[in-house]
Specification:
Strand order of the largest sheet: 2-8-7-4-5
Structural class: alpha+beta
Strand content: over 45%
Helix content: 10-25%
Number of domains: 1
Radius of gyration: 24 Å
Distance between the termini: 80 Å
Number of strands: 8
CATH class: Mainly Beta
Order of helices and strands: HHEEEEHEEEE
Number of helices: 3
Length: about 160
């Protein structure tokens, strides 16, 4: 009995720490992050395509960054990274391991042309990608603040002979 009484403050602090850890975790923060950054993507790519034929189309992109007014010397860059695969990719890390083509808006910051993608095998395929929207803002003392918005792009396509 004496050993249990001596360890009771330790056991108390372990239970108190565990309670505080689990009670402080909630989904409110996660939901807030999702609401803070919104984007809309309209995919204008074919649903089917003949094997060894070049795919062409476009993606129309709008985001909260469209309302940001850039000051002198501040820049915004939009990149669309696409790869082809046999299944949709579940996360960005998986996508970043693959060979990708890079596309950028040409004359209109909302319209990204997609071209020169050729499928060499028939069957159901997927265009997997990530759209990266970055704003580079000048800060004090020559520092630059980079704000990034990443949006997943998945488009199924049937390739026939």
């Amino acid at each position: 009995m004496k050993g249990i009484k001596d360890n009771s403050p330790i056991v108390y602090y372990i239970f108190l720490s565990g309670f505080l850890l689990f009670s402080s975790c909630n989904n409110k923060t996660k939901k807030k992050e999702e609401k803070n950054s919104t984007s809309q993507i309209e995919i204008k790519l074919p649903d089917s395509l003949q094997m060894n034929t070049e795919m062409e189309g476009e993606i129309i992109y709008r985001s909260d960054f469209d309302t940001v007014r850039l000051k002198n010397g501040e820049k915004r860059y939009i990149y669309l990274y696409l790869s082809e695969g046999d299944s949709p990719l579940s996360d960005f890390r998986e996508l970043k391991k693959q060979e990708m083509d890079t596309f950028v808006p040409i004359n209109d910051e909302h319209l990204i042309p997609v071209y020169n993608i050729v499928f060499e095998k028939s069957g159901k395929k997927f265009i997997n990608g990530v759209l990266v929207d970055q704003i580079f803002k000048n800060e004090e003392e020559g520092n630059v603040k980079i704000t990034t918005l990443e949006t997943k792009v998945i488009h199924p396509i049937v390739i026939y002979d």
